[in-house]
């Protein structure tokens, strides 16, 4: 397993500090996983410990794993936006660029943690390859504050994903999240299931004892098991 770290120019005009984990030689990887970090304005970056644990999990499978610092973070150029729209455009450009370089890819998985899960929903489900999403600790209550009150943009984006029959979405949250109550998540999950009914494949998992930062050892274990089980289905 080899990791290549580079400053990658994108068609959006920025260069992102990007790391690509390559599977062991001899295989024939057909999946790429993109991992998106939490809000940069509060210190979120590609080295976030939750993101790193997810990277290690996916790297054990025969797939590429791509993670990066969003614009204005670390060595990435440009400036962070307040709405997240530019970050969404960067993600789409990064995915497209990777697919052009690796034409054998048949499956794309986008994993967003906290604020990263908002940006993940801005990427449309592709028709050319299987597209799946992991939305971890989706910041439901602070969504408006994190996006300069563009909450509807993100709720609409998620609804659009759930209306796509070729999309596969896994939502995971802790029942002791620091920012969104379990009751609010529960109501939200019910509405997501209703939206996706007969359309996208949706799985919602609430984890007892888990907070927003997944600091509990048992919560981390459950998270890893949930991801491993889900990965077998996509």
Task: Write up this protein.
The protein is α/β, with parallel strands linked by helices and 234 residues long. 35% of the residues lie in helices and 24% in strands. The chain has helices at 49-59, 85-101, 115-121, 143-146, 151-162, 182-196, 217-231; strands at 2-9, 15-22, 31-36, 64-68, 107-113, 130-136, 167-174, 201-207. Strand 5 (107-113), helix 3 (115-121) and strand 6 (130-136) form a beta-alpha-beta unit. The two termini are 22 Å apart.
Helix content estimate: 25-40%
Uncertain segments are none
Averaging pLDDT over every residue, what do you get?
96
Output the structural class.
Answer: alpha/beta
Overview in brief:
By secondary structure, this protein is α/β, with parallel strands linked by helices. It is 35% helix and 24% strand. β3 (31-36), α1 and β4 form a beta-alpha-beta unit.
Protein traits:
234 residues, alpha/beta, 8-stranded mixed β-sheet, 7 helices, 8 strands, 35% helix, 24% strand, globular
